[in-house]
Design a protein that fits this description.
Distance between the termini: 20 Å
Number of domains: 1
Shape: globular
Oligomer: single chain
Structural class: alpha+beta
Largest sheet: 6 strands, antiparallel
Strand content: 25-35%
Number of helices: 5
Length: 134
């Protein structure tokens, strides 16, 4: 994964993966902070786990390939430490008519998604894969 530094954003001062530099992700973190919630940045291995417990943004078909661990994940927590939402990335390549590489950013929110994350992923996974608080 390419690692570069950014300039002029709320995520300054650290090395960032591509998901951190995207305007979509920056707006997501800013919205979390405006609500008085906490945004935490997780390793790509945690992104794989999140994608395994949440419905994918695409359908697997013949002649497609999917990757879930290429990007980091960002998870929103309320003041009580409960999951509110999660931003994850996924990629899909298709060779049906030429080759297409599609990159997805999905924000999973709502009680059902938050409960799925909390109930299916151990607290130790959250702790062991957290890189930093944003």
């Amino acid at each position: 994964m390419e690692i570069t530094s950014t300039g002029g954003s709320i995520l300054d001062g650290c090395q960032h993966s591509r998901i951190e530099r995207e305007s979509f992700s920056i707006a997501y973190v800013e919205a979390i902070q405006r609500r008085g919630h906490i945004a935490k940045f997780y390793s790509p291995s945690f992104s794989v786990l999140l994608n395994s417990v949440l419905p994918p943004p695409f359908t697997h078909r013949d002649q497609t390939e999917e990757w879930y661990g290429l990007d980091n994940a960002i998870v929103e927590f309320d003041r009580n430490g409960r999951v509110v939402s999660a931003l994850v990335g996924a990629h899909q390549a298709s060779s049906l008519l030429g080759v297409r590489d599609l990159e997805y950013r999905t924000i999973y929110m709502g009680t059902l998604n938050a409960k799925a994350i909390e109930n299916k992923l151990s607290i130790y996974l959250f702790r062991d894969t957290e890189l930093r608080t944003l």
